[in-house]
Design brief:
alpha/beta, five-stranded mixed β-sheet
Length: 205
């Protein structure tokens, strides 16, 4: 069981929030929040408005606002210090990911600006991170930031009776419908939840 405050990255939030608003909030020792940069991205990103228009519909904006981290003066200073201290170091960790992207002709940044802000905030404040992103996971491992995946979050929400297995399976089927499954999701689902594996049928979503 994971405890403490964990910050949810954009993809993990989107993968669950379409089906239930319970992805954020206080879940008996596990508090899940967004940072301001990711909450803003969810409300303003042109890409997300196209692929997830439901995020602009109630109750999602209100729920995000209620569970977006608000920093005091000292916390803001701590996050800025983390940014200053780690800016160069994280580039060394991400270099391998960047080289692989460039080999595919993709010259975009390995981590988005909101994801970098998420990492600096988690490190500076001693929070954890919920993510399925390889580069962000690599940073968490390198710098000892607690982290877990979207599927692990679903497992905990099921164990604490926030979600039922049926709801979890419906969420996972929707990932397949949207072709937005986390890497190795099937193997990890069976490891965490056991069989049967919830596979999409055309009329099941």
């Amino acid at each position: 069981m994971f405890e403490g405050t964990f910050l949810v990255d954009t993809n993990s939030y989107v993968r669950i929030a379409r089906s239930t608003t319970c992805v954020l909030g206080d879940h008996g020792g596990l508090e899940l929040r967004l940072i301001k940069e990711i909450a803003t991205e969810c409300g303003r990103s042109t890409r997300l408005k196209v692929v997830a228009p439901w995020m602009l519909q109630p109750p999602h904006p209100e729920h995000r606002a209620a569970w977006t981290l608000s920093l005091n003066k000292q916390e803001t200073k701590d996050v800025q210090e983390a940014r200053n201290d780690l800016r160069d170091a994280i580039q060394d960790v991400l270099e391998e990911f960047a080289l692989k992207k460039k080999a595919r002709g993709d010259n975009r940044s390995v981590l988005s600006t909101p994801d970098k802000a998420l990492f600096y905030t988690a490190y500076g404040l001693g929070c954890g991170i919920v993510t399925d992103e390889g580069p962000l996971t690599a940073l968490c491992k390198e710098f000892d930031v607690p982290h877990f995946s979207t599927l692990e979050l679903l497992q905990q929400l099921m164990q604490t009776s926030v979600l039922t297995r049926q709801q979890v399976e419906r969420i996972v089927k929707y990932w397949q419908f949207e072709k937005d499954e986390p890497k190795n999701w099937a193997k990890n689902f069976l490891k965490l939840f056991g069989p049967p594996l919830p596979l999409l049928e055309i009329d099941s979503v």
